[in-house]
Amino acid sequence: MPMPGDLWEGRIVIVGASLAGLRAAETLREEGFTGPLTLVGEEPRPPYDRPPLSKQVLLGTTTADATRLPTRREPDADWRLGVAATGLDPLAKRVLLADGESLPYDRLLIATGTRARPWPHPEQAALDGVLPLRTSDDAARLADRLAAGPRRVLVIGGGFTGSEIASACREQGIEVTVAERGSGPLVGALGGTLSKLAAGLQRAHGVDLRCGVTVTALSGDGKGRFTGADLSDGSHIDADVCVIALGAVRNVEWLADTGLAAGPHGVACDAGCRAFTMYGIVTDDVFVAGDVSRFPHPLFDYQLLSLEHWGNAVTQAEVAAHNMVHPGPYRRPHLGVPVFWSTQFGVNIKSVGVPTFSDQVVIAQGSLAERRLVAVYGYRGRVTAAVTVNMAKWLEHYQSLIETAAPFPPAPGAADGHPLVAEFPVPSDVPDPKGLSHGPTVALTGHLPDRRLTVVRPGS
After folding, report:
1. Do 292 and 16 meet the contact criterion of CB atoms below 8 Å apart?
2. Half-sphere exposure of 115 (CA within 13 A, CB side)
3. Which tens digit of pLDDT belongs to each residue from 295-308?
4. φ and ψ at residue 216, rounded to 5 degrees
5. FRET label pair with 294: which of 128, 155, 223, 413, CA 20 to 30 Å apart?
6. CA angle at residue 112 from 443 to 78, to 5 degrees?
């Protein structure tokens, strides 16, 4: 390893003061960086944990204020909280802030994450009782509404967040309707086979699940209070609370016209977390980490991965921080296999790999009927993902199969000495994201320019 004197020194600015930003700041200090460090965060509160917001906070077992992230060490940083970054001047190397100040940097880490996708009709979104769920304040407001005992809650979107909200409602005895544009809940993340399991779970727990429909309008009582919604099949839902769970929007608008490869899927970077320009040239002073990033992964044909995963935010932030202060020969790639988990309707769902990067799936252990299983996904004859339902202890085994590009389907008895439960793999039935009312938590974007490029020729 390089000696401390070999570390790069200069001014570092991290834009984004959530999980990725905090872990990057801590890692910089752990790696021996002693230079000036500034963290910019749009929210006024210190970094907090988001997974409990749709679980424990809604159930009332903890409060939104109690979700602050523990720190591994004091990052010794200048915190600029409650002020958003509004622009970037990459030539002058300055971050522009909403309060009119600009911060100079020598190296910049973009970790601005995502925000909740809003309801597209502002006047309907402004109705009292229509709520998003992304921030700590959002969770506190929704928890108060649930504690007040509404007659019915409408959840628009059947992804992980929407499903966890519905689970929290039913656990408290609250009637809930879930409206999902796709064929079933979680279909965008796990494909059609496990979506059927998720649908069965919801209905078994009393959820009024409506699939293949869209919400066409939210209605009020004339006094600004939400009262219900019209659906595309002509039906109407009466409800007191509506939660918009339409997925996430990556916070990249402040990077417009900077020349970086930033667009709807995030900011593109190499495996070392260095941002690309819109022409595919790698930078060496701008790095990216967390939900706002998209990066190539050799296990998934070097397509660009966009992840909304807690573990990815941590590991990528650590890699980015390491590479920001170490010379080229000591830099390392971010090649972690995506891992995700969710608890809903009494089951624990854990995923490793990228289930949407698949063409077939097989139930390798357990069964759909028992709601205890391992589903293994394959693409062109190799294992690319596994999802466990109440069988998380096997996840490590299947992760090793993914990392070694093991043949699909896995050999009989590969995990526990028993033959495969399913005799034949079936299509994984991964839908087109355009048919979902929520975005998948993993997106493979491939080569998809986000704007028309101007070809630059020598001498022009």
Report:
1. yes
2. 10
3. 999 999 898 999 99
4. -90, -25
5. 155
6. 155
43 secondary structure, DSSP code = S
User: CATH code for 118-246?
Assistant: 3.50.50.60
DSSP 8-state secondary structure symbol assigned to residue 65: G
Q: For the chain, where do the domains classified as CATH 3.50.50.60 start and end?
A: 4-115+249-330, 118-246
In this prediction, residue 4 carries a pLDDT of 45
Tokens of 429: 């039935």
pLDDT per residue as tens digits for the range 348-396: 999 999 999 999 999 999 888 888 999 999 999 999 999 999 999 999 9
Strands across the sheet with 152-156, in order? 130-132, 241-244, 152-156, 175-180, 208-211
308, amino acid identity: E
Q: Is 141 a residue whose pLDDT tops 90?
A: yes
What's the whole-model pTM score? 0.92
Which of 3.50.50.60, 3.90.650.10, 3.40.50.300, 3.30.43.10 would CATH assign to domain 4-115+249-330? 3.50.50.60
Angle at alpha carbon of residue 339, lines to 355 and 166, rounded to 5°: 80
Which amino acid is located at 204 in the chain?
A
419: buried, middle or exposed (CB in 10 Å: 19+, 13-18, 0-12)?
exposed
> 């001498």: which residue's tokens?
459
Share of the chain above pLDDT 90, in %: 82
In 3D space, the residue among 220, 205, 213 whose CA is nearest the CA of residue 157 turns out to be 213
Rg (CA), the chain: 23
Structure tokens at 407: 């043949």
Place of tokens 């202060």: 325
- Helices marked H in 274-394: 310-325
